[in-house]
Design a protein that fits this description.
Layout (H helix, E strand, L loop, with lengths): L15 E2 L2 E4 L6 H4 L18 E10 L10 E9 L4 H9 L9 E5 L5 E5 L10 E6 L11 E8 L1 E10 L15 E6 L2 E5 L8 E9 L9 E3 L3 E2 L18 E6 L59 H5 L3 H4 L3 E3 L2 H5 L12
Antiparallel strand pairs: 1-9, 2-3, 3-8, 4-7, 4-9, 5-6, 5-8, 10-14, 10-15, 11-12, 13-16
Length: 345
């Protein structure tokens, strides 16, 4: 596996749309990927399993991109329709082609396509941007042609390129939240514009507030102030359940100097676990994740809470914060709680 990317801010000069783009069947798809307009490239079709399809690529011509640009970057915005644990297990036990992340290919001086990065990962969710380093990719005499190849259901909305800004021209400032409140909200209504578009939640419209899935059994964080749990990366965390909402308010900084442009980047560190029957320990909150653990498994000594490394680091949190016990009983029984009634005799 590739090393994870460094935690850094990458600033670019104004990105330029790609000059031309084609799908793997030779169709000109430039109009689809030149702008962030909610139209997605999806000419590869569906496969036997959700999230995996046939091998496909989008070919990109950068046109008159300057090969001498300092730190050139390719921006690829889109979304991935993911597999799940049960699908991954079926693929591992079968003869199907294994899923492959996005690979970067370039056309060399002889016109042959060569792989320069075999696995760049994939867009990390819905409408996410991959930032791909093109340093040392092109050499003198090479056409500025690229391919992004995968067999995953990756739908591209926007492809562009740009030159990086010198690090000394970037000023970063960390803003810690003034308040951080965990509360219950429910589930937003979602919609999907078409077969190639992601399902989008509408925050201002609540679909329902009852238990929607088989919740994981165990202690979750109680509602209220949770700001101390979010101060740093230290295996203290907010344990949220489906339908919960974490609302954080940040201070308003002074305006930037004249001629400067400011962006805000929200940085988070954590884990997610679903209830798929083939996800490890999918019925319970524990075992607890830890930055020290290389794999997700039972801690030495067994399932008891006292054996969990995260608990041993911060045992008081289970007295102060993680006191809300959740079960899937309402979902499993298929009924809603009813108020007790009495009848006069």
């Amino acid at each position: 596996a590739n090393a994870p990317p460094s935690m850094a801010v990458h600033a670019l000069q104004r990105p330029q749309p790609v000059a031309r783009a084609w799908d793997d069947m030779g169709h000109d798809v430039t109009d689809i990927v030149r702008a962030r307009d909610g139209r997605y490239l999806g000419t590869f079709g569906r496969g036997a399993y959700q999230g995996i399809t046939r091998d496909h690529f989008v070919e990109i011509d950068l046109g008159d991109a300057d090969p001498d640009d300092a730190q050139p970057w390719l921006l690829a915005q889109g979304w991935v329709y993911p597999t799940d644990s049960s699908i991954n297990l079926a693929i591992a036990q079968g003869t199907q082609t294994q899923p492959r992340g996005v690979a970067l290919e370039v056309r060399d001086a002889s016109g042959e396509w060569v792989v320069v990065s075999p696995d760049l990962g994939f867009p990390a969710g819905k409408n996410k941007t991959m930032v791909i380093d093109l340093s040392d990719v092109f050499h003198e005499g090479q056409a500025r042609r690229l391919r992004l190849r995968t067999n995953l259901e990756v739908y591209w909305d926007w492809l562009a390129y740009g030159a990086g800004v010198e690090p000394e021209a970037i000023v970063t400032r960390r803003l810690d939240p003034v308040t951080a409140e965990l509360r219950y909200r429910g589930f937003s209504r979602t919609s999907q514009a078409g077969p190639h578009t992601p399902e989008i939640p509408h925050y201002d419209q609540i679909a329902n507030t009852t238990q929607r899935w088989r919740d994981l059994t165990g202690y979750h964080t109680r509602f209220g102030d949770v700001r101390p749990l979010l101060a740093q990366v230290d295996d203290r965390y907010v344990i949220m359940n489906a339908g919960d909402e974490l609302q954080a308010l940040f201070p308003t900084p002074a305006p930037p100097p004249a001629g400067w442009t400011r962006d805000f980047v929200l940085i988070g560190d954590g884990w997610v676990k679903d209830g798929d029957y083939n996800t490890a320990f999918s019925k319970t909150v524990r075992p607890l994740p830890s930055h020290e653990a290389q794999t997700y498994q039972l801690p030495a000594g067994g399932f008891a809470l006292d054996n969990d490394p995260a608990y041993r680091l911060h045992p008081d949190d289970w007295q102060t914060y993680h006191t809300r016990f959740v079960t899937p009983q309402e979902f499993l029984s298929g009924s809603r709680p009813r108020r007790a009634t009495t009848q006069a005799k």
